[in-house]
Specification:
Length: about 280
Amino acid sequence: MLKRYNIILYSTNKIVNSCRYVSQSMLKSTVNEKTGIATVIINKPPVNCISLELLNKINTEINKLQKDNIRGMILTSVRSLQKVFCGGLDIKEFYNPNPDRLAKYLTNLQDTWLSLYMTSFPTVSVINGHSLGGGCLIAMCCDYRVMVGPDYTIGLNETKLGVVPPKWFQDTMAAIIGHRKAEVSVIAGKTYTTDEALQIGLVDESSPDIDNAYKKGIQFLNSFEKISPWAFKMTKNISRQPISQWLIDNKQKDLEFVFNYMQTPSVQKHLGLYLQSLKK
Ligand SMILES: CCCCCCCC/C=C\CC(=O)SCCNC(=O)CCNC(=O)[C@H](O)C(C)(C)COP(=O)(O)OP(=O)(O)OC[C@H]1O[C@@H](n2cnc3c(N)ncnc32)[C@H](O)[C@@H]1OP(=O)(O)O
């Protein structure tokens, strides 16, 4: 299975070993036509941080898979990055931003979260490296998380950058680890090692290596073989709808709050210093 996966990774837009392969650069997506399981791989070196273009590709691909009636999806990072699942939202999108592009970015982020959080098919994130800020968010959108360890970190660290994780970021985490733990976590911008994340329930399983993590992800998806897709979809919808409905009802207000504070001098100063610290 994994060997075949590697062959697919380096092929282009054709059927290989019964798998449909779709390459959109930055994002590689394969659907195994035998199993109906899609593997979506983020591939944006050096650290898979999420630009407007990558955001669009993720949202487009999720919506495409939704129409394809797939049986499940694994979301992971290209192996060549070695130690990063996703370095989070691209801070350069927020620093000295072009206002039109910033508005587009924030709107696309809301839409992508809605698509990924509410998929009608089961999803697993195979977290094969650090997963911070928006990286943690996309991992948390999935129904199940397997994290490779022990040396990687995961968490909503936004306050460390001087920015505010919106209600739906925080609610996504609270739905997984509970309100109190999520509150303590987000206000301090806490990050967790793989073992700590497993202990607080932020991830469901850990694994010492990527092949094994991928296998565990497939096992989770296979556990739905005898579950009716309709029952799955309706049940997940009931479970997640209160959180997603808040964003649907408050999209404009949410957008305006972030759009305005992001451009204030004090937030810009914080972002500049954080970017600088990364470069050091
Ligand atoms: C209405 C809509 C509401 C929307 C609300 C938005 C509010 C939330 C805002 C932001 C959320 C976020 O996601 S902020 C980003 C959070 N992520 C991080 O803090 C991670 C930062 N990166 C790292 O810690 C490390 O890079 C790493 C551990 C991920 C990898 O370490 P490594 O040593 O391998 O790589 P480098 O640190 O040398 O980085 C290489 C290169 O990449 C640049 N970089 C890293 N992360 C980012 C990023 N998130 N955005 C932009 N650029 C990033 C880093 O500066 C290096 O650049 P140079 O090569 O030019 O030096």
